[in-house]
Amino acid sequence: MELECRFFATYREAVGQKELMRTIDEGTTVGDVLTALEAEYEGLEGQLLEDGAIRPQLSVLKNGRDVTHMAGVETALEDGDRLSVFPPVAGGCGHRCRSPQTRI
Q1: C-alpha distances in angstroms, 50 versus 26, 46, 94?
Q2: Do residues 9 and 86 lie in contact, with contact meaning Cβ atoms separated by under 8 Å?
Q3: 89 — pLDDT class (breaks 50, 70, 90)
Q4: Across the chain, how many H-helices and E-strands are there?
Q5: 36 CB contacts (<8 Å, ≥6 apart)?
Q6: Model-level pTM?
Q7: Beta-ladder partners of 85
Q8: How far apart are CA 68 and CA 79, in angstroms?
Q9: Per-residue pLDDT tens for 24-83?
Q10: Residues 6 or more apart in contact with residue 45 via CB below 8 angstroms
């Protein structure tokens, strides 16, 4: 079975490319793939999973749907699926986005 993996921001840098194709066995889960990616790419080691679960603030999508709303790491993958991995995002526009009346 074929799986497309897509990486964004710092994860793209760690992998060295935006996307890659993987051949997976029937019954492979999101957790299996994330574990394999952490083992294969030094820059991903310890970045995807924490205590067997997807790290907090990390977004992992299966065909555009967040796997945390599915079965998490136990989400089954099928032939032709696309797995997208987004690192945590922080920040915002801070005081510059507030209207002049709300500035402190």
Answers
A1: 25, 7, 30
A2: yes
A3: confident
A4: 2, 7
A5: none
A6: 0.84
A7: 7, 60
A8: 20
A9: 999 999 999 999 999 999 999 999 999 999 998 999 999 999 999 999 999 999 999 999
A10: 38, 39
